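Hey L., structure's done. Input below.
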Amino acid sequence: MRKDAYEIESQKPYFQTVKDLLDKYEDGWNIFIKAHEEKDYDIPVIRKPEFEDDPYLPDSWLELADRVISIIAHEKLQLETNPNRIEIVRADQMLDAYVRPVPDGPSHWSYGKRRAIEQQQYDARKHLAYEIIINSNPALAYCMDTNSPVMQMLVFAHASYGHNAVYKNNFLFENFSDPDTIMAVNQRLKALIDECEDKYGVDEVEQVLDFCHAMRFMDTNDKPPKRHIGKKELEAKKTKAREFPYLNPPRKSVFNDKSEGADATNDNADYTAHPAQGERNILTFIADNVGHLPRWKREIMHLSSIVSQNFVPNIRTKVLNEGFACITHYQVMETMFDIGLMDASMHGEFRQSHAGVTYQPPGTVMKPNPYTGEEEEVFVGSDINIYALGFAIFEDIKRICDDPTEEDLRWFPHFAGKGNWEEMALHVMESNTDETLVQQYLSPTVMRKFKYFLLEGEPEDEFLTVSAIHADEGFKRVREQLAADYRLSDKIPKISVRDYQEETDRCLVLQHDVIDDQPLDPKSTRQILQMIHAQTKTPVVIESVDADGDVVDYHASPPDYDYEPHRRTSLHYDLAR
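Output:
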């Protein structure tokens, strides 16, 4: 306990709330230290006689630790979270949790394969994650039964309050996930699959599940959900799309006159788009529109898509999520030390674990020179530790709010020196992705700390060029490039519905927007199209379209399919539509 910090913290409202709670127990303020000394988080917690019948007091050490951490997180750090459900699990249960997106979900051979791999790795190193948390309501956290009392408190703060706060408040999770229903949807999916396996056979159902798994990144939306359109309204839109060009011909003018001398190069003048053009959730589109598919298959596709959608925000907020969870557990544990709930031994254990999680391996190593034999520093590169980067950004936001330098005042005039870092950290957490977090809040101080610089060139080049270092304008270029590295929209192929020829041969036409001249992998593309074709029993086409709207690549299943006689537009796409 730090005396000066204790005097400051003891004047804050949350401190009295904690004191009022712990004063109801025989061991009181020493209850967490006692568990650490006995190396047992399951020690009995004994209430004072006058509080024995209070139904609202925690009955176990773990419940009491969670209650105290909750007070600090909610009252001091001002976090808003969903209710928590914390389960202490064995190693085999944690391994099971590793391989399933959501607990108690359907079985699949890929989960068994991954489970065997994880078991081999565990047998070799005897180490598992300290916790796993599911974005549900209540938030479900699995914590290892081998964690020490200090580690249990740390993972409670990290997962059940840090991650939980991100899940509840970040704009991506608000728009793209539904924690209130995800567990029920997953259980419904499992029950449906079990029922279908009994009716239609394991092999038939497994093919549908293989198809759903293969449609990863084509089974979700990256835009906020649209208003639900009923069947009648959808049919009305289709009818209007067919009839509009005939009932309401365009007014003749110099801009659309096809007569001699007029510009007659617009091949798309008579094109009527399909109502679902631009839809990114291909799996749901198939379930909704391929009416000849059995209902049970379409229902499995729907539910699988909902489960996948719940995880869309996770892949775009890894740095932010882990960074905010780390700053949360750091502040909670330091507060517990400051007010005397942890002794120096417990504080040392916490700091050692925290340092290990947020350690950034260096990009250089010392090796002997093959000619001189002398040790010299050799650049080998190192992957960025998202825990280290995220924590460093949030920790630096706190420093900039409280004690900015002249450099900070130039870079962050809107919050540097304004104090109230908790409110600023919450604003950053709520309103950013990894890309925007790095783009807006990665400071020169953090870039210097990690010694970031920018290399340019091609992988096959013998030499690369150092084009920016952590100084002057180099900071901006380094930050822009690192932010671009977290721009997942440039890394995951952008594929959407172009057309569905439901009135002819029911061909599904997909469009791939080519970004930075990156083509689709031909082998994977053919395999995916074959799986779509096998399920729908109708042709499927994907066209790769460049920035000018020209088709630069084409794949189809069956391979010799020619949909030119049925297509509703030319080979040139008007991307402005």
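Confidence is low (pLDDT under 50) at residues 252-270. The CA atoms of residues 172 and 313 lie 5 Å apart.

-- N.
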